[in-house]
Every structure is written in C-alpha cells, then in structure tokens.
Amino acid sequence: MAPTKLKSEEEVFPPQEIHLLKDAVYGGEHVAEPFYDKYQQDVPIAMDLGTSTWRVGLTNSSEPNNVFPGLISRYRDRKALKTLTIIGNDVYTDSVLRSTVKSPYDGPLITNWDYIESMLDYSFEHLGVTSDNGKLNNPIIMSEPLTCPHNQRKSMYEILFEAYQVPKVSFGIDSLFSYYANSSGKSSGLVIGAGNQATTVIPVINGRGIMSQTKRIDWGGEQSQQYISKLLSLKYPYFPSKLNSYHTTNVFKDFCYVSENYQDEIRHILDMDILESKDIVLQFPVEISVNTEKKKTEEELAEQAAKRKEQGKRLQKQAQEKRLEKLAQKQDEWDYFSKFKEDNADLSPEDFETKLIANGFDDLEDFKKYMTSLERTLKRANQGDDEHGEEEEVDPSTAWPLVDIPDDQLSDDQKKEKKKQKLLKANFEARERNKEIKKQEEEAKAKLEREQQEWRDRDLDDWCTTKRLQLAEAISKYKEKQKLLESFKDRKSAAAQQRMKYIADLANDETGSTSSQSRKRRRNANATIDNDPNDTFGANDEDWNMYREITNTSVEEELEATNKEIISLEEELLQYDPNFHHEDTFAAASTFDWKNSILHKFIHGPRPNITIAMQAEGLSPEEIATHPEMIRKNHQIHFNVERIRVPEILFQPSIGGLDQAGISEIANGLITRRLDRNFSPGGQSYDVLSDIFITGGLSLLPGFEKRLETDFKSFLPVGVPLHVRRAKDPILDPWHGMHKWANSEDSTNGYVTKEEYEEYGPEYIKEHGLGNANLSDL
C-alpha cells in the first residue's frame, strides 16, 4: 500500500488549560463584617453607595471600615415567627438566602427606600455609632449618580435629616472624588468613570467638574455581564446548566480585555495560531457518576453470541417449515383451480364466471389476478429465493423418492408429501443453478484480475494512468448526479419542471383529458380502477419508469452505483499506485475540515470535536452520551470572541444596541469642539489632555489605558502631549477622595445643614466642584 504524504494519525494537540467557573463565595469562606472600635462623634462619615458595592467608614481612618455588596435578603423563621433581614456579605452564608437576594437599585437609581434604610442601619451599627440625644451626630458625605433626579435627593434628604437627624450632608460624584484623591485638588483633566451602571466623561478645570460639558454612556459592569449571559445563551442554546449573574460577572472580570485595535483583532482572532492563546475554556462544575457495572469477559460474550446463533438457527428452521407448509397449501390451491379451469373449459364465460362467484371470487378478473399471484409465488419459490439458513448436504438420487412416482400409486398423505418434495427439489435445483452462475462470475473475476496483474507487471504507469482517468470520470459523473439531485429542490430548475410534467401527465386522466384512452374510459361507466379494460398502464415495464423519474429513485441508484465504482477504483490505486495516497481519495477531499470552519472554532475552540473521534472508534450513541469525557465537554464554554467584543461596547455602543457615542468619540467632540480648542500651554484643551484619568471597576480591564492613547492620538493634532493614567485603587479611591476632602478646607462650605434643608427645602444643594450642579445655574 502506498505511504501517505502526511501523518496518518491525527495531529496531537497539547491539552488546554481549564478554568473553573467561579460562583459567589459563601458558606465556610465567608468573613463576617467587622465592627469599628474608634467611633467619634462629629467626625464625618464617608459613604460611597455604589450599585454594586457599598464602602463606608469614618474619616478619622485612612481606609473604609466596611466594604460589602449592596444586597439584602429577607428570611422568615417560621419557628421563631420572625422575619430576618440579612445584608451585605451575610447573604452568602446560606444558599437559601442567596436565592432570595435583592437589590434596592433599579439601574443607577434607588427604588426601594425601605431597603436603603435597613442598609444604613447596618452600616451605622458596624461603625459603632452611639448617641446620647437620639440623633446621628456625624456629618455625612455621600456619593450620588451623575445628574441625580430631584426625587432621589429629596428622599435621601428625608431619611438623613428626618430619620437620623444628621447635622449636615454633602453629596458628590464618585469619579470626581476618585480624581480628587489622585490629584492636588486644583488640577485639570478629563475624568472617565467606568462604573457598574454607567460610564461618565467629565472635564475638570482647576479642580472643578464642568457639569455643562459632561456626558454619560448608559453602559457599565452590570450591562456587560448581562450581555455576556445573552451571548453565551445564543452560543450554547442547549447548555445543560444555567449560568447565574455571579458566573458571568466573574468571567467578565477575569478574562475580558480592551483591544487596542478591535477591527484588526476581531478579523484574525479565530485564526488557529491566535485562537490557541486567546481561547479560554470555562468548566462548569459537574459530577460524573462512575459506572460500577461489571464488564463481561470475552468467554461470557462468546457464550452469549453462541446462544444467540443457536436461537437464530432454531428460528430459521421454524420459519422454513412454516414457509414450506404455506407453499404446499398454495400448490394444492393451484392444482385444484387449474383442474377446475380445465373441467369448465367448455362453459361460456358468463356461466364460468357464475361458478367462480359461487367459489368466492368477485368476477373473472378477480380469479385471473388470484391465479397470477399463485403462479408468481410458486415460480419464485422454484427459482430458489428461499435460501435462509445453512445448506445441508443432499443426495439428489435419494432425497426425494416420491417425485417420480405417479399420483395414482400414492395415498393421500404421500401425495401431500410428494408436493413438499417437489418444492424442495425445485429449490435445490435453483440453488445449484445459482452456484454455477456464481462460480462463472468468480472465474470471470479471477480472469480479469489476472489480466489486470499482467497489465501492471507489463506497464504499471499505463495502468495507473488509465485507472486515474476512470476515477476522474466516475467522480465527475457522481458530481453531475449529485448536482441533478440538488436541482430537484429548486422548483424553477429544468429537472424539477420535467418532474412536474410527469406528475401532470399521470394526473391528466383524472382532470378531463381529451385523449382517446380517456374517452374510452369515460364511455365505460362501470369500469373501476381494478377492472377497467382500457387501462393498459403497466403492461410494459417501461411504463413504471415514470414513477422512478418522479421519486428520483433512478438518480439515487445511479449515485450509489457510481460511489461504489469510485471506492473500488480508489482501493486499487491505493494498493498498487505508489503516488496515490489517502489524501487523494474523493472522500478525503470531501471530508469536513474543522480547522477551516469558523463556527467550529467559535464554539469548540482550536480542538477537534471529540464526538467525531468517538464515532470513528465505533462507540454507540448511548455510550458517547454517557462517556465521562463527553459529559465534561458538554459542560464547557469556549470564551474567545466575547473577550474583546463586550468591552468594545464602551467605544462602540452600537454593538450593544445603544444609540450613543463611545468614549473616544465623546472625548473627541469635547476636546476639539466644546472646550477652547487651545492646544498650547495654558489652554483648556491642553490642560485636559495632560491628565486623562480613568477610574471605576471597568478601568481595571487590561488594555484600557493603551486603547485610550491609541484613539486619542488618532484625532489630536500632531505633537500635542497626552498622558493617560489610572487611579491607584479604582474601587476604593472614591472613598479615599471623600476622606481627603472631609479633612481639607475645601469641605468648609460644601455641606447642607439641617437648618438650611428646613429653610430652603430638598431642592437646595451647595456646589463644591466634586458634585452635581444646581440646574438653575446652568
């Protein structure tokens, strides 16, 4: 056999790293929220109320005392008849609590103020707040969303001033507080806050945010994890387990990154060499039950096979006896009605038909059909169609002693036995004829093989060339037939039109045909489908070709025959042609190559589908479905394109379905059109570009700073200095900024006191450069 040009075995790939899908941390790994032991009255309390995480602490400490998720769960203890309110990390202590967890937020806004009040109680309790006058005697510094609605601030004022009786309150924007913590307090820059619910772009001039030029993109971490959930649901619609928000959030944080050149990377990310490093395999936890059933030994399997074979022989013998009984019965009927026909040959057709009706026939035509059916059955039996079971040795001279004895010398039982022996003799003779035919075919085949061998020995190159030409012709014929078969699916194709013509011709007689045959049929009013004397369809074998054309049977049979011819020629070439390899076969050329399938690499990553390999090993569908490796693979997710697609929404919101501009486009319009457009030292645009500051949870995505630098350089004048930096701690720096602001002189006139609230109402705020502006001043 000719050697292959490539490796005959499948290319071996190194194993991919498997990452377990991380869920929420609860149970034994939970750490209780600490209680603060250095509480002091009159010390401001800084509270960064993020929609994802709350950060709370007194400003006499450099770090927040409590950092916990903004979640709440209510549990009804039926024995104690009490409803327990669980907040923050404590909701993870039990799976029942986690299943009933809720948030007081709907998007960036608070919608459940009862929950907020409970969470504030929880925060103040852990800060160790005490009071001798029933009031909270600490100023409050609190974060609020950009362009906070009036009803939100009003409700918060009411809780703080009326429920807790705080002396004074100040509100600010978390991203500006973060910038304040990372600057001198009088700096200029562009603050990009990528948070959990929204992304904001705020220009800062001399330490004050310019609210009139601020923009917000309604996309953040929450929307990103929801988008990942939708993408994975579409990618794996039959994934056996349900992914929750904790899974997708952790996947987003751990494996997504911002692409420096999205269009170029998305074009090549599914290339095999790149996909090898970009594809992340995520394994959903699954328990695989071990099959403890004892496997049967080879001796036991062989014994079972022998029993099945013996049982099959017994069934074949029983079936053969029943067939012989039925054939003998049919032979009796044939003899009886043949004699009946001879005895009544002198009768007129009408009298003969009367006798037939008396014997149970409908009419003369029914009798003819019955006799034809009997004749066909007996003829088929005599031709040796019944060759089931193993053939026994038979001596023709002694096997059927009653066949040559006249019937008048036999008893009734012997006559019945004689009929069986005649059938057996006819079957034996038919088998002998078939053996002779097969022997002649084998001799012809051996002669052809000898001629082929002599040809190969004489001129191998000529033999190979001829066989290759025959193979090419067969493949071309196969493709033509396949194309013809496909054309039947198009009702406008010529083949489909011809097929419809055949159908119309068959139905023409039923739809008012004016042909002479149809007129004859209509004149014979008593004619039916069974006894119409004018119906000659089927008398010739060629009549049935019309049905073969309609059902495409002839094309399918020719396709199958051509395929067998191709396989036969390829087997010869593989055996004798040194230049013909497995890769040259028609099947190999038509085989699916998973490396060239974008869909395969997108779903299964840079590895072949193990289902195909298991099928090649001969495993049954049941064995494949229950195989431990298959179960493990079915619980895996390949995270590749989504790694860059989801973060890219910050720069192209249209990907996520938002009709908004991205970060770079907003910054371009702000810097080059809405500020003073002065790119020399001292100009607003120059000062802003000298400090592009990013903060918030999404700023932790790898590549965020590099992408901003690339995009900004694409629209800035050549030579303009550009500096992009990230907050030291994007998560905690808003609280650090509150701490710094509370302990500086900048906070002196930044609070709204309880007296001012009572005098001016909830619409009153004080601007301090790090919060929202008064609408009346804009």
Please name the defining characteristics of this protein:
778 residues, alpha/beta, Nucleotidyltransferase, domain 5, 6-stranded mixed β-sheet, 29 helices, elongated, disordered N terminus, nucleus, transcription, Actin, coiled coil, ATPase_NBD
Number of strand segments: 19
The name of the CATH topology of the domain at 31-182 and 732-777 is: Nucleotidyltransferase, domain 5
Q: What's the gyration radius in Å?
A: 45 Å
Low-confidence stretches: 1-10, 385-391, 509-515
What's the architecture of the domain at 31-182 and 732-777 in CATH terms? Answer: 2-Layer Sandwich
Q: Assign the CATH class of the domain at 31-182 and 732-777.
A: Alpha Beta
Question: Span from first to last CA?
Answer: 88 Å
User: Percentage of helical residues?
Assistant: 40-55%
What is the molecular shape? elongated
Going by CATH, what is the homologous superfamily of the domain at 31-182 and 732-777? ATPase, nucleotide binding domain
Describe this structure in words.
This protein is of the alpha/beta class and 778 residues long. Among the domains are: 31-182 and 732-777, 2-Layer Sandwich (Nucleotidyltransferase, domain 5), CATH 3.30.420.40; 298-442, no CATH class. The chain has 29 helices and 19 strands. The strands form 5 sheets. It has a 6-stranded mixed beta sheet, with helices on both faces. Strands 11, 12, 13, 14, 17 and 18 form a 6-stranded mixed beta sheet that branches. Strands 1-15-16 form a 3-stranded mixed beta sheet. Strand 5 and strand 6 (82-87) form a beta hairpin. Helix 4 crosses helix 28, helix 5 (221-235) crosses helix 6 (245-255) and helix 9 (298-343) packs across helix 11 (364-382). The two termini are 88 Å apart. Its main location: nucleus. One of its GO terms (biological process) is DNA damage response.
